[in-house]
């Protein structure tokens, strides 16, 4: 199933009478609480999702900034959103799908069969002249049952070993990969052996690029079908977007949720800097 849906396709789906649950996952670095913007205008019927508290947990620095939520936390949140088994779930944001992809990635691995991301997000919807509504949406609680997220997940030791058997993607901006700047974490640089594929290169005006363009972008860094590929970012949010792009391109991408925030806060983990991957055996 295509993990993306266009604004026009979503409008037709909503008119078709099938149960559709809309999740507004507005979140950005520097503006993690998207609720004020949600209240000002959102897709009709959409429920606001708190990424920090519902799509992540909280722990020690060495756990990273956005550890995965437990099954119980995610299931309780999904029920608050009104989800039932068999529902179609569409997540969107206002940042090119970078936050919505976290909801897609978690829910699809926790047992939701039909979950997609609105390509183009809120701006794609409004560009088509489709309506928004104001205020809060409080749905009748759902009864969905989820399972633990275990497939397609790498831990810190997996990430360390990954370059020896496949391609480890660092999808942060190039200057962070090179170690020239680090606005959030205690150490600048990248995991030795990782190659840089900035997530922005996979987008075009807020939309995911075409499957062919995505395959070409992945191939430029050695990530081709059949090659073991994993991705990390700053805290595990945009790495899920790399997995989303991978599905569109036909490439299976495992996500390292701890990402650089965990790696850089864990004593003894080596760090590479500069434009080259570095030696993963160091």
TrEMBL record:
Tagged with keyword Coiled coil: no
Rhodanese domain location: 16-134, 167-272
Record region (Disordered): 262-282
EC number: 2.8.1.1, 2.8.1.2
PROSITE patterns, sorted: RHODANESE_1, RHODANESE_3
Top-level class of the enzyme under EC nomenclature: transferase
GO molecular function, one term: thiosulfate-cyanide sulfurtransferase activity
CDD domains: TST_Repeat_1, TST_Repeat_2
Keywords (A to Z) from UniProt: Pyruvate, Repeat, Transferase
Protein name: Thiosulfate/3-mercaptopyruvate sulfurtransferase
UniProt lineage: Bacteria, Bacillati, Actinomycetota, Actinomycetes, Micrococcales
